Amino acid sequence: MQTKIVKITDENKKEVLEKAANIIKSGGLVVFPTETVYGLGANVFDEKALAKIFSAKGRPSDNPIIVHISDEDQLKELVDTVSEQQKKLINAFWPGPLTIVFEKKKEISDIVSGGLPTIAVRMPSNPIAHELIYLAGVPIAAPSANISGRPSGTTGEHIYDELTGKVDMIIDAGFSDIGVESTVLRINNEQVLILRPGAITKEMLEKILFPLAVIFAKDRRELQFSPGTKYRHYAPKAKLEIISEKMEKRAEVLKEKKLRIGIITTKQNKDSFEKYKPNVFVLGDRNNLEEISQKLYDALRFFDTHPVDIILCESFPKEGLGVAIMDRLDRASM
């Protein structure tokens, strides 16, 4: 397959998105930007196209795919009922980085739901994604654009090597704004279960859904309803260790063992690791979790071109967006 790679601009936007929408309509695959990470998209109603997603990514067939919509009319094509609590979430957070798990219509393919009776849906706020879905005229099923298990793509360049020759088009719009995947939640028995943390935090959800309890799901039977929870994800090629304290000491121990060391650190601590350059990636200001989040996968992919034996990464407080950041780091280090 020949992949068309396009850097989208204001001048070519209309032409590029019309071509991409036609690819989706005709059963092809398009990589496109969203505010979270890049997505690998296909027509949700085309089973052959859905199968191509799993083939391109090497994705396990029991891993659900999030479906992206441009408006609530498209939601009606996917689900029969929307609860009052779900309506509150839609009004508060759509379009945006929140995925809601619904009971799906029976006619929706089990391929997209990983064999489950549910479907995970979100409405992206990224204008390119929104326009592409609108022009395609169908909801677009789109997991993250990467080989399964690897760090998600947050720029078009991240994706070129992995997916060129496996998809019809890659739309490159530079860095994603958020840099980690959407929050995924399911409402079950009057509880709000966060299946995967993201930029929509527990605290934000509690404000909208009070007095419902909002909790992080831990039971595997619940976690299966979300992508990114069952298998090893987000992992760089080298082994990753998350260090909560005394990172310099740990680096010295590994250096004595003649190991090549990579460092992921913050602006506040970068001077402590001068001796490890050029294998040092500075995420940004430790107090700016939005900046840390945006650069996280770029940091993990950095060491694909700066080969090391082990990567040491600072840990972050599990509060607000820090919960999502640490979730991705913990899974990458499994």
Topology:
Blueprint lengths: L3 E4 L5 H13 L4 E3 L6 E5 L3 H11 L9 E2 L3 H5 L7 H10 L4 E6 L6 H4 L4 E5 L4 H10 L3 E2 L14 H8 L5 E4 L10 E6 L2 E6 L5 H8 L3 E4 L3 H4 L15 E5 L3 H10 L4 E5 L14 E3 L6 H17 L4 E5 L6 H12 L2
Helix pairs in contact: 1-6, 11-12
**Average residue-wise pLDDT:** 94
Total individual domains: 2
Low-confidence stretches: none
CATH topology of the largest domain: DHBP synthase
Major beta-sheet overview: 11 strands, mixed
CATH class of the largest domain: Alpha Beta
Family: Belongs to the SUA5 family.
Function: Required for the formation of a threonylcarbamoyl group on adenosine at position 37 (t(6)A37) in tRNAs that read codons beginning with adenine.
GO molecular function: ATP binding; double-stranded RNA binding; L-threonylcarbamoyladenylate synthase; tRNA binding
EC number: 2.7.7.87
